[in-house]
Amino acid sequence: ISGHDHLTALDQHYLSLIRTGTHAPRDVLAFAAATLHIDILPEYQGKGWGRRLMQLAVTQLARRGARALWVGSNGEEGRRFYRKVGFRPIRDKFMGLRFDDFKAP
Question: Taking 90 as the threshold, does the pLDDT of residue 65 lie above it?
Answer without folding.
Answer: yes
